[in-house]
Amino acid sequence: MRSVLITGADRGIGFALCRCFLENGWMVYAGRFMKDWTELDALKEEYGNRLSLVNLDVGSQDSVDEAAQMVGEQTDCLDMLVNCAGIYQNGSSETTRCCLNINTLGPIRIVEAFLPLMERGDKRLCFFSSEAGSITLTHRTGDVSYCVSKTCLNMAVRLMFEKLHPQGYRFRLYHPGWVRTYMSGQKSTEGNFEPEETAAVAYEQFTSDRNWEDVLVMSDVSDEIWPF
Q1: pTM, entire model
Q2: Which residues contact 195 (CB under 8 A, 6 or more apart)?
Q3: Which of 153, 196, 211, 221 could cross-link 177 (Cys pair, CB 3.0–4.6 Å)?
Q4: How high is the pLDDT of residue 53?
Q5: Residues with Cβ < 8 Å from 148, sequence gap 6 or more?
């Protein structure tokens, strides 16, 4: 049975992705940040041992290390990492620091901590980015904190690609579109997609093979390629 760790699995796209993977027979390790949010508990009742709830704050190195130890006690092999956890804040140097800590350093922490478990697996690393991080197509006049964090993430993924692709790792960098999700803390009423819609596309892109795995691209919910 193939296995995946998904960060930011409590709600929104992360939760929808958990369901997608479970419905397709995967073993899912769901990174849980909010213990009082009960959707994952209901999913656990439905899928039993194929869903493992992992306490995980990607903004904390200690939490990430503890999560890696917990998963390592349950399995010696992970096939895929899906870095979905993210926040949207804007307006000050402090919000920029927060966005960088979660949106950029979070995925870096996750990859570093879980890489040993991936050596015997499918070696697939997946990241949620955004058009907001594209330098080439910059069009926003605000959103500095969020945009900077996604641009930094794109560079971090590029550097990971250069190092890890020669070792057999495959990468997915995904722009989910404008989603009615929870990145600002409350579910947005604005957007073009529900979390379930973009999660379904993400699942297909993450699990499908490409003939051009030696090229890193950012693909979106419409299967179009974006410069980043």
Answers
A1: 0.94
A2: 11, 12, 13, 15, 16, 179, 180, 181
A3: 221
A4: 98
A5: 96, 99, 100
